[in-house]
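Name: YhcN/YlaJ family sporulation lipoprotein
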Amino acid sequence: MKKTLLTLGICGVIALTGCKDQDAGEDIYKESGNTVNISDRPDLYNRNLGDNKQQRAEEYGYVRHQKSPVPGENVTRNQEILSLDREALANTISLMAIQIPEVKDCATLVTDEEVLIAYEADTKDRKATADQVKRSAMSFVPRFFHVYVADDKKMIRDIENLSPLDSDSVGIESTIDATIKEMLQYPQGYRINNDENENGEYENGMNDDMDRDDIHESMDQGQNNK
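Structure predicted for YhcN/YlaJ family sporulation lipoprotein:
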């Protein structure tokens, strides 16, 4: 009888130890409450919310990531950070723009580093409206993005014509440059700050090589030569 109890006791200790080890591992690499860790799939985010859209709108968003003990796995995760759902982002920007009272129609194209917004507005202050549209977009995109706007219904069609293209399309850079150059003919709002122009491009700054402000310079030179 004593041997049986002793055997059961040892088995119980081993089972509890195993459970603790498993719980410890899950605490580090699995979901804990609303915390989603690096080993979880993206579709597990806030899975407790279900399809309740109202509840989703009210819930805070919280995500915690921890480094994986598997060598090289974090490289893949870093690559995922650079991935954006550009169509969803364009949708959000357009929806926000038409909340502005003067804006009646809006089309948005999100590229790998620019946001092009063409809209139709009934406004007495085109510059102020352009600034509102531009800044509403800037509040949603990564800081290295530049935003260009045009309050012309014709430009909406031009933006739409670019939508089937992507970063690998032949001549896409020159096409985007030409479109931006045309958009700069319209009010772009006010400067972002002392270091950034109206489109969020740094002037003589550390990120100047990422900007397209050479288009501004060429346009200014052309205007001065007239």
